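Preliminary data (for renewal application), inosinic acid complex.
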Amino acid sequence: METDIERILFHAAAIQARVDELAAEITRDYAGKELTVVAVLTGALMFTADLLRRIPLPLKLDCVSVASYHGGTETSGEVQFDQISLPDIEGRHVLVVDDILDSGLTLDAITRKFYQHCGPQSVRLCTLLSKRRVRIKDVEAQYIGFEIEDEFVVGYGMDYQERYRNLPFVGVLKPQRTQEEI
Ligand code: IMP
Ligand code: MG
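Predicted structure:
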């Protein structure tokens, strides 16, 4: 699996150090507020687990499951919600946690859906990574771990065709791995 990686962008220790900083910031900002963290499955699983264990606030945790990629490396442009019920976040301050901000379609769709149907007091966004690119939807995350160039990455929760999520680091796949069926 590791031999499929061309370049490591962030080693495990660097990720953990940055997660420490983000958690401290979030803890300061949400002290005394009714916070619900909503993790975007599946990519945000590792990040959310590490982040939340460093936030000593009486928060609630929920998840949403959306799909926009359908297995390739380009977004399909359509965001589907997989579950029937949305999180119970009425009147809550919501922090949506995702692995990566790319086109912006996913986090834009989630933010809209929450404001339209769930009555949150506020919705803010936290992503481990943010790609430097022109977004299809102009969304901004208030908490960002690292900015990266516009290239396809895997590891620490992020996949290519459901593989590589369990790598402890974030890396760029060798180009041939995204062209052949693996
Ligand atoms: P967006 O809707 O284009 O912003 O994409 C967000 C979602 O696409 C993320 O939650 C990831 O699941 C997936 N994604 C975007 N870029 C990458 C990548 O480089 N590697 C793995 N997954 C990605
Ligand atoms: Mg995702």
